[in-house]
TrEMBL record:
Protein's UniProt keywords contain Signal: yes
Protein name: Peptide hydrolase
Matches recorded under Gene3D superfamilies: 3.50.30.30, Zn peptidases (3.40.630.10)
Keywords from the UniProt entry: Aminopeptidase, Hydrolase, Metal-binding, Protease, Signal, Zinc
A single BP term in Gene Ontology: proteolysis
Cofactor(s) the protein requires to work: Zn(2+)
Length: 498
């Protein structure tokens, strides 16, 4: 009896399983010639319109981390990709330390602006400035300072983490700290340098701290020679903002040859961020949606990072969360960010630079982009990744082959580039970069589609076959010292698991 009853059930089960299998098998294997015709300006601009609407929901009209505009953007991506049933979707929550405010310095009645640092207490300090020996990373560096009461410590950038420098100065009795040296090029408070307060409490208390550029170093050292009184005024609001990376990976495809695509979903505060960087995230999203009509040989993982505008915390956090085995499973990483600039260019990340030790395999990735652009009659030029300014940094420093495309941002277009691509010489590629004017009206849809197709071509190509992309062998390391990642340990923002 029971075995008779069992039979039809087994039959039904196996029929159902077969159906599921054959449905998957019915999807044609992806190829560039099948995927590219599915991409068009209309779908891209409809994503741009959605993201713009989300930005308009934030009081500050942006999609900065923690805002309503950003949260809505993440739900949109999750929902669209979830509806396909084609992806395993996961997310990572983490906290980013953000500080907003001002810091200034007064030497002999002359005022200079400086950088705030996350977790610095606010305060006005007026005291004799004393230069600390070395980098202030060792308690013995503070002998001179300890001879006086309530001074301001002058410390050179480097040697150890900011947090340690400030806490040691605090422990030695300083009432304030000035750190001088290579501060970030972009004097934008949102790119302010950060301190790691929580980890340094055992060393000493934090005191108000200001970061100033190298060029004030000599003036300050002279003041310190005579133990002159200087004033610092630090007013910062510190907070933790929880935010999220969204990760969507094809259910099918080899999981040990992962083709990863990264873009970011956040903007700088005050900018709707349509070129920077809906153009990247929107292109990745649209390709992911269209890809679901096909099958793949290699797994494709779409990474929608948050916190890029906070020194790429999202991608760093993501990479730090992976074990060595999972890192080995990446075949390569494609970065897409800013691909719809009005005064546009067609840049491809340089994977063969003699100047920079880019992970092996990056040249082959570059080739795929270059050949694609060539095939549609567009001349592409290499762009250096000398000082990583995007989410690819985490992959580059993990020796994973990287590549990407870019239409140009805040740097000016040269005469020569105008000869190649047209446009305005001497004008930035995107004059609305990081501005409230980074809107739909100020992007070029044709440029966006052309770049999106290049990305689609690379994804179709690599999700079929990555055998042409060599990787470093396990244990082999790049000479990363040569990479100009300026003060990255010091600048590394704090992230903690939410
Ligand atoms: C986009 O690509 C096509 C060729 O596929 C080209 O004719 C067109 O000029 C490109 N658009 C821009 C603005 O570069
Ligand atoms: C900070 C910022 O500009 N955001 C990113 C948007 O895209 C560009 C191009 O890749 C990156 O340079 C930026 O870091």
């Amino acid at each position: 009896m029971s075995s008779l009853l069992l039979l039809p059930r087994l039959l039904i089960l196996s029929l159902l399983t077969n159906l599921a299998f054959s449905q998957q098998a019915q999807q044609p294997l992806v190829s560039s010639s099948l995927l590219l015709p599915t991409l068009n300006q209309q779908s891209l601009s409809s994503h741009a319109i959605s993201f713009s609407t989300f930005a308009s929901q934030s009081p500050s009209k942006d999609r900065a981390i923690g805002t309503e505009g950003h949260k809505l953007s993440l739900s949109y991506i999750r929902q669209k990709l979830g509806d396909t049933g084609y992806y395993d979707i996961s997310e990572q929550n983490f906290n980013i330390a953000v500080s907003r405010g001002t810091a200034s310095l007064d030497i002999g009645g002359k005022k200079y602006d400086g950088f705030t640092m996350t977790h610095s207490p606010s305060g006005k300090v007026s005291a004799a400035v004393v230069a600390v020996a070395g980098y202030g990373c060792d308690p013995t560096n503070y002998r001179e300072l300890e001879k006086m009461e309530g001074t301001i410590a002058l410390i050179k950038l480097g040697g150890c983490q900011f947090g340690e420098q400030v806490a040691r100065a605090g422990a030695a009795g300083a009432k304030g700290v000035i750190i001088y040296g290579g501060m970030p090029i972009n004097k934008d408070q949102e790119r302010a340098i950060t301190l790691t307060l929580a980890e340094r409490k055992e060393i000493g208390p934090y005191v108000p701290v200001i970061g100033v550029d190298e060029k004030y170093g000599a003036k300050l050292l002279a003041a310190a020679k005579d133990k002159k009184i200087v004033n610092i005024d630090v007013q910062v609001k510190n907070q933790w903002i929880m935010t999220t990376n969204v990760i969507a990976e094809t259910k099918g495809g080899a999981k040990d040859k992962v083709v990863a695509i990264g873009s970011h979903t956040d903007t700088v505060p005050g900018s709707p961020g349509i070129n920077d960087n809906v153009s990247g995230a929107g292109a990745a999203l649209e390709i992911a949606l269209q890809l679901s009509k096909f099958s793949v040989n290699n797994a494709v993982r779409f990474l929608f990072f948050s916190g890029e505008e906070n020194e790429m915390v999202g991608s760093d956090y993501y990479m730090a969360s992976l074990d060595e085995k999972s890192r080995q499973n990446f075949a390569l990483y494609l970065n897409v960010d800013i691909i719809a600039s009005k005064n546009h260019g067609y840049f491809v990340y340089d994977g063969s630079s003699k100047k920079v030790p880019v992970p092996p395999g990056s040249r082959q990735v570059q080739d795929v982009f270059d050949k694609y652009f060539q095939s549609v009659g567009i001349k592409s030029l290499p762009i250096y990744t000398e000082e990583p300014r995007g989410d690819y940094k985490a992959f580059m420093t993990s020796n994973i082959p990287i590549g990407g495309i870019h239409s140009g941002a805040d740097f000016p277009k040269s005469e020569e580039q105008v000869k190649i691509w047209g446009g305005q010489a001497g004008e930035p590629f995107d004059k609305n970069y990081h501005q409230p004017g980074d809107t739909i009206e100020n992007i070029d849809l044709s440029v966006w589609l052309n770049h999106t197709k290049a990305l689609g071509h690379a994804i179709a190509t690599f999700s079929r076959d990555v055998s042409g992309v060599p990787k470093l062998k396990e244990g082999q390391k790049l000479p990363l010292r040569k990479l100009k990642i300026r003060g990255v340990e010091n600048r590394h923002p704090q992230f903690v698991k939410a």
